[in-house]
Amino acid sequence: MTMTFTDIHMPPRLLAPGGTPSGHPAQVLRRIAESGLTGRGGAAFPTHRKLVAVADAGRRRGRPPVVVANGAEGEPASHKDRTLLRLSPHLVLDGLQLAAEAVDAGEAYLAVEDGATSLEAALAERRDRLPVRVVRVPKRFLSGQSSALAQYLSGHAGLPRDQRPPVREQGVRRDPTLVQNVETLAHLALIARYGADWFRSVGTPSEPGSALCTVYAPGRAIRVVEAPFGMELHRLLPLDGVGAVLVGGYHGTWLTVAEAATRTLTADSLGAGVLIALPADRCGLADTAHVLRYLAIESAGQCGPCLNGLPRIAAAFRTLAAPGPQGTSRRDVARWAGLVEGRGACHHPDGTVRLVRSAFTAFAAELDAHAAGRCTAPDRSPLLPVPGNRS
Amino acid sequence: MTDDAILWYANRATGAVCLVLFTIVVLLGIAVRLRGRLPGLPRFGTVSLHRTLSLSAVAFLALHITAAVVDSYVNITVLDVLVPFVSDYEPFWLGLGTVTLDLLLAVLVTSLMRERIGQRTWRAVHWLAYASWPIALFHGLGIGTDAGTDWMLWLTVCCVAAVLAAFCVRLAHAARESRLTPAELLRSAEHRTAERAHS
Lengths: 391, 199
What we know:
Structural class of chain B: mainly alpha
Oligomer: heterodimer
Order of helices and strands of chain A: HHEHHEHEHEHHEEHEEHHEHHHHH
Distance between the termini of chain A: 31 Å
Number of helices of chain A: 16
Number of domains of chain B: 1
Number of strands of chain A: 9
């Protein structure tokens, strides 16, 4: 990465912030509504509805809301948020100011895992109405979950809490809180600048606009690319010599290569924006077992089904990933998956179950081969990145 | 039998009933916390039994107190019922009963308002229930007319033994729970599956 020191000899002009008109909040809100922008943190929730809900909660309860730009990219395979913050910090900060104005916020935060120093330098170059505090959050899978983030910013441990009351009503120190992914805020700034029609000029009518994706293609460096919704997956990700594709990150879905060839980029499948092509000579079960182990350790350990279920699922899946006798592991995993689903305060168990079930479908043939005592993949070393073993 | 004698018997009887009922309520409360299941009842039955019996116990406590106040043989005022250690009659032992009532009132009111005040506050106040049980026990031992009788002695011993046993189970559970982390559970689960594969 190149360090930029733009303010040493003169105030920056070329690399200066600005360009986004600070339009009237009502006008900004209307444009966001017309644009059809959805959140880019994984849940694809309509941004306009969230803004309106937070603004309402603030007025109703007489407490100015808090806005949080969420750059806590806990997903180990995702790089899009940190890349965006490094390349276009001012676009995100513009969006943050616009969102703050739209909900009439009293406080603003930018939450990141690292790179806080250069972001503080970028903030010093600006003359914002609302000062923004950069907060470094712990590097954990769940740090970016909106209630975990609100808890952390309130001075508690950064763990998810019960969804009632929702963060939009009572988030950071019980104030109404808007948590938006940094990419969503960047889109928001561009929509304020160029209008809803410009935004809708790419993508599909039902899912307008574009999204940042972290793309893992075999034999190539990891890339962050921007792609419009509705684009065929095989154009983003060459599928030659690929065995399976993981769409959406570690809470996402495994697709067989035949399925992937028919799919397009959609907001609800994209999740955290991760697209991984698993080369045909790798064992998808070994990789999934590796990731499940990580997801089990990253459970906040607060809800019984997640605390007890995920480690059991991970351990049994490890048996399935090794060629040889499997006992009742396959049935156990399927049963436990049903028992943990929908029974957490956050969606960690649900996302994990999604990965497990899709692996069962996409690697069904490989599972049978393992049960018969052989693995069809010559290379069994895991490919998917998992942060250092903390167990 | 005179009216006063009836009140006196009623007071002693309800006192003993309160001891038994509140003991059962404490045991059920611990069972709820341990997510225990009573034979013949669905799992939510433990919670509703705890709730129903605690309300019945409060009703008996109200009778116990009313009988004591109305009884004119000893002078106990309404003020003595609510403010501890100010009564003319046995200020210390009666005061312990008053403290119990105050604690239980806090537990009762917060339980009725649980939806409103939130889980965290409710739970903090609910811990007081554990404190109220031994205080009430000492109140009974110190002031109870029947404290010296054999049947009351055995009843008390049984109640104390039951609550102590349940409390030990509760402590062991808490100690085990604090050791439960996802990483720890993963390690033991992997250990188990590896063993099963070798056997």
